[in-house]
Amino acid sequence: MDVSVEFHFDFGSPNAYLANLVIPAIETRRFLAKHGITRYTANPFFPVNTLQIMRGAIAAQRVGCFERYVDEVYRHMWADPKKMDEPAVIRAALLESGLPADQLLARASDPDVKQELISNTEASVTRGVFGSPSFFVGGELFFGKDRLREVEEEIEVQSRRTGAIR
Questions:
Q1: What is the rounded CA–CA span in Å between residue 154 and residue 43?
Q2: Which residues share a beta bridge with 134?
Q3: The pLDDT of residue 31
Q4: What is the pLDDT of residue 27?
Q5: Whole-angstrom Cα distance, residue 110 to residue 133?
Q6: CATH number of the domain within which 52 lies
Q7: What is the four-CA torsion angle of 70, 121, 133, 162, rounded to 10 degrees?
Q8: What is the C-alpha separation between 158 and 108, in angstroms, rounded?
């Protein structure tokens, strides 16, 4: 049985961006003390209203490009900073990233996508999420990039319990 880890995020959080960069290392059980992150720039447009790009994440799930969308939107927010709350800037960024910008933007405005983001947010709050980034390992909530080590340790503990790590 695999250990389930959920990452609750908002593109407006630089800490969530930094956490997103090290998630692959956690997934492959590499040591986290030194991440070697070199692609981070404070966004001069911060704070950015992330509603459109968060809706875009729901649309990207439906279109089948969620992982790439997340990586690219984070890049445009925190590595090559742009004002990602302006529709024209969002569209240009998605096109630059080779993503189906028009399809994603159209889907992001669908009422069902808007409702799914509302529902996801309400469900996160109900579970105790109070900021980004937040992680659940099993049922335990971990908040902040400074808790990634504890996330990794809990994954290892639960994996041992379930026999996923020997």
A1: 32
A2: 8, 143
A3: 35
A4: 61
A5: 26
A6: 1.10.472.60
A7: -90
A8: 36
Would 115 be classed as within a structural domain?
Answer: yes
Is residue 149 included in any domain, yes or no?
A: no
SS3 label, residue 82: coil
Taking alpha carbons only, the member of 93, 152, 62, 124 closest to residue 160 is: 152
DSSP secondary structure of 84-121: TTSHHHHHHHHHHTT--HHHHHHHHTSHHHHHHHHHHH
Provide the residue range defining the domain that includes 94. 40-131
Cα–Cα distance, 104 to 72 (Å, whole number): 13
Beta-bridged to residue 5, according to DSSP, are 137
Q: Is residue 60 part of a domain?
A: yes
Number of folded domains in the chain? 1
Domain assignment of residue 117, yes or no: yes
**pLDDT value of residue 24:** 74
> What's the alpha-carbon Rg for the chain, to the nearest Å?
16
CB-based contact 112:123 (threshold 8 Å): no
Give the mean pLDDT per block of 10 residues along the chain (166 residues): 78 92 70 60 92 98 97 96 98 98 98 98 96 92 90 90 68
What type of residue is 70?
V
- DSSP-assigned beta bridge partners for residue 135: 7, 142
